[in-house]
């Protein structure tokens, strides 16, 4: 098997310079639980069928097989890491129709639990439909497997009252309370002394009272009260509940008294008022709840609070001083996972065919299976040229929110396929509204151009063989002019001047080899391929360095476009790059400060470490292109750079550059929604 047929880039340590939308309220007739010989319900009761997501997923899997396989009956596995694929964008305001539908919907017991735990978490999940998974969520769902694997029937109220059901264990029963607008899925229901006792399973441990006795946490007490309310609404008597904690294997009783019911109904009213307001609550401040929250990478509590309460980012990220020299506080907990364990899949060899069997992608060429790749371990798929994917493979990748990026054989990024995971358009409405504000566009554009110029200047200072003092000083002076620019047109001119100064000295960033210095062409043949660089050219690139730069910028555009989609922004509507047909304006905007740090650095890394050599290029007329082996080598260099951990200048924690792209897009979303005032551009010291 040749490694040229495909490329899976794993994370590299090398250092270089569950709950879905609740069902609608049932009709006047009492629905019965799913299962054989459902027991009759009391008059006026509402019983909602069990969650069938696993059954539907298995059914969909059977319909989508490319070939017969032993994996045919495997369920789709949900990835365990918090990742952009399982997130949706936050929105500042919701339409009246959306708010009305949420107000009229039955409130799940879990959502009331989330409201008591953290109102912002409730807003993300209930109002905006944002869900993500971490280890705690996956482990909790795994522990519910035995409970959720079977749906039992409840006896009638008369049977319970007459004592005919002496000891009942009914699992995974869903009940609703139309009067209060509540719905709950009960893990286990026991029957004793003519009353129902709901039992809820929790992964953690109880809190300890002052006397050392175990007690149930407040969010779980409220959730248990909701279960009691839905049981009472269906005619059953319920005076207490039980929470079972897996970690300590303890059963803790929860008395259902009038005080708890009043607290629960008051919380229900407050939660509905919050959903009706359409305004997301502020993050918790330095809360111990945040580190283990599955949405911490989306909520960004410490980062948002820092930027809400500190000096404007102009005094933090857009000055010559570092963040440590600012008057703003910089104590931000490192709550975001530094890097993603998922892998990028690059399909480079022409004639490759990708099919799907179960939760595995099978990569073939000439009827020979070259490799099998687990979908749950893949974060994105990049297709170069004539590579075929089956409809079943595309459908499953969309279902798992794995984007598919399409490139020409020469590396031109021209398309993206992804699932319908971005169902909330409200943040994009804010994006479009702000894009019509010339003052906002100019202010953001100035910050982006200044940040890019600072990073270019840093590249020359750090990596040039003989740092050009004149060019560095000139760039510093132009940065001051950028901050005073009064139009996008003048800003474009200043950016062009900085780029010319930067690329005039780019050749000095290339380290000489044993045979020649990169400052002088090593051959008298003008068509000889070398890494000598004179100026930036493209469409087509006319020398190897420009060919690498063009491919690097295409890959960076792809990754920034994916990050914009993950957060919920429209990558085509930019603020600096004004709308133009077929151009990813916002992706180009946000990648400006990262061009020298990621793409240019990857090019220098590939050349200076001899990962690519002049033999990896072909000349066709006046253009130069990479061979398949050369493209593969550069992609490896690019992914190495994307996996490199960099320190954020404001938050002082380290993230991979792929994570950093998403973080910066989320910070822009905070600006658009009004949570923070100014966008902090990423610059390196």
Automatic annotation (TrEMBL):
Domain (DUF83): residue spans on this chain: 111-300
Iron-sulfur keyword on record: yes
Entry EC number(s): 3.1.-.-
Cofactor dependency: Mg(2+); Mn(2+)
Family: Belongs to the CRISPR-associated endonuclease Cas1 family.
Entry function: CRISPR (clustered regularly interspaced short palindromic repeat), is an adaptive immune system that provides protection against mobile genetic elements (viruses, transposable elements and conjugative plasmids). CRISPR clusters contain spacers, sequences complementary to antecedent mobile elements, and target invading nucleic acids. CRISPR clusters are transcribed and processed into CRISPR RNA (crRNA). Acts as a dsDNA endonuclease. Involved in the integration of spacer DNA into the CRISPR cassette.
Name of the molecule in the record: CRISPR-associated endonuclease Cas1
Native organism: Isosphaera pallida (strain ATCC 43644 / DSM 9630 / IS1B)
